[in-house]
Amino acid sequence: MKKLLFLLFQICLLCQLNASANGWQSNWYASLRMTGGTGEYLPFWARTGEDGILPVRNSGLMTAGGDILYETDKGFYFSAGANLVGACSMKSILNPEPVYGLVDRAYVSAGWKMLHADLGLKPRHGDLGDLSITGGDIIMSGNARNLPGVNLYSDWIYFEKGKWFAVKGNLAHYYMSDNRFVKGTMVHDKAIAIRIAAGRTVELMAGFHHYAQWGGTGIQASLNDYVKVFFAKRGGEGDTLSDQLNVYGNHLGNEWARLIWRRGTRTYTFQYDKPFEDNSGMCFQNFPDGVWTFQFSSGRTQGLLTDLTCEYINTTWQSGVVHDRPATPEEMAGQDPDSPWYGKVVVGGRDDYFNNSYYYSGWTYYGRMIGLPLMVPMVPGEDGVCRGVMNNRVRGYHIGMKGTIYKVPYTFKATFTENFGTYYHPLSSDLWQLSMALETVLLQNIAKLPVALTVGVYGDVGEFYQKSAGLILKFTYGGSASF
Which CATH architecture has domain 34-69+92-97+115-318+353-477? Predict the structure, then answer.
């Protein structure tokens, strides 16, 4: 990390020395947040999102950072940024030290027209904004800290002048630096999406995103192994039994489809975002699991309701209640007697989202869910290691709204869920939960300075989390300049 920050400083300095040849822009910001609640832990919406930097108990949090952007008239650009976090919090299993600091972002980026490359710690958020429970991406929701790595990606690339058909994609490699069951786990990531437009009125998009956890302490990680990961091939001799029976590494991802309809200034968006853990999920055996989203945007900044998001979340089916069944005599006749599955037929159910029998910490990072935040990780043990997800069968409803009341902006969220645990470790009973949040910007440009005061009120009622109420006061400062 020190080397990355030093490289960032050198490139920023070089960019400024050459600023006279082409223009560059900069922005800077800082925030002070004070959070208190009535329960042992803060309500769900007071500790969820924002790239996993929020403490889970009463706390004070400071951030400071900035970004620069350097562009040329030939389509080339360079950008870099960093954001540092310092916190003073009541001790918790996720924050064992009362005072701590962390690097939230530290990245350099470069690109030409629609092609881009990121190096370092940089957020990756979905397309549906902060009113959505996932931001539009059930796998990478912005609920956990940013993964360090490199990401090569493109914007929409059109193939004809009418701009009715386009593709985009990415290829990335990340490293999981937290204290986890398989330390040093790496993450392979690739995606492709298509876009079909009928003028500027209707757009249809669909995409496929593939992730794989691989390598780590005690696991070979050669170029040949990377090829296995890339093409989701089975492991060979010397790999774990799980990798030989299934595929090398822990593979997961999502398939999504989105319809956008524009009418005047108003925009209507419909999206279905479905996770998968194996072939049964990829082949839609787990349908209708996923997040179903409807969004409305008025295109205005003032009004009682300018933006609305409604979502239905269901992850209870998981391709069915049965993973395998006894084989019939006829089926056994065609099976390999030396196979661990001899005498059984794999049906494909019990996908067990975001868990894995070997990469035992699952799809978590620093104790937080990387994906859908309604799924809950195991409490870390005495060694500080999270051992997977204890609640991945969830059914829920979510609503998010934005608008202004007497020109005062507000954001409201309400999330109702039923929680069932996992197929392998169900909860003793189905537990319901209602979490709410109301945030408003009370003051802006205080004393003609770019300072704002945001107030948030939060609450949890139900059976899954403890009943609690919370309050957040947040002061933000920001500015920008062009040269």
Answer: Beta Barrel (2.40)
Query: Are the C-beta atoms of residues 103 and 1 closer than 8 Å to each other?
Result: yes
CB atoms within 10 A of CB 219: 20
Dihedral angle over CA of 283, 288, 290, 291, nearest 10: 140
Contact by Cβ (8 Å): 369, 386: no
**Residues paired with residue 87 on neighbouring β-strands, in sequence order:** 61, 100
Count the helix, strand and coil residues of the chain and give each as a percent rounded to the nearest 5: 10, 50, 40
* Backbone conformation region of residue 113, classed left if phi is above 0, alpha if psi is from -120 to 50, else beta: left
Residue 250, judged by CB atoms within 10 A of its CB (0-12, 13-18, 19+), counts as buried
Indicate the burial class of 449 (C-beta count within 10 angstroms; 0-12, 13-18, 19 or more): exposed
- Which pair of structure tokens corresponds to residue 96? 């064992």
* pLDDT given for residue 25 in this prediction: 92
Task: Decide: residue 51, CB within 10 A, 0-12 exposed, 13-18 middle, 19+ buried.
Answer: buried
**Residue ranges covered by each domain of the chain:** 34-69+92-97+115-318+353-477
- Identity of residue 406: Y
Distance in angstroms (rounded) separating the CA atoms of residues 197 and 205: 9
Rounded to whole angstroms, the Cα distance separating 440 from 371 reads 27
DSSP-assigned letters across all residues of 19-87? TTTS-EEEEEEEEEEEEEESSSS--GGGSS-GGGTS-SSSEEEEEEEEEEEEE-TTSEEEEEEEEEEEE
Q: How far apart are CA 268 and CA 333, in angstroms?
A: 55
As a whole number of angstroms, the distance between CA 292 and CA 294 comes to: 7
Summarised one tens digit per residue, pLDDT across range 314-349 is: 999 999 999 888 888 887 887 888 777 788 888 889
Residue 390 vs residues 313, 349, 377, 434: alpha-carbon distances, Å: 17, 18, 6, 19
Interatomic CA distance for residues 424 and 311, integer angstroms: 27
**Joined tokens for residue 382:** 């005495």
- The whole-angstrom separation of Cα 70 and Cα 129 is 26
Q: Measure the CA–CA gap between 454 and 476, rounded to whole angstroms.
A: 8
pLDDT of 73 above 90: no
Please say whether the beta carbons of 353 and 315 come within 8 A.
yes
| pLDDT at residue 239 tops 80 | no
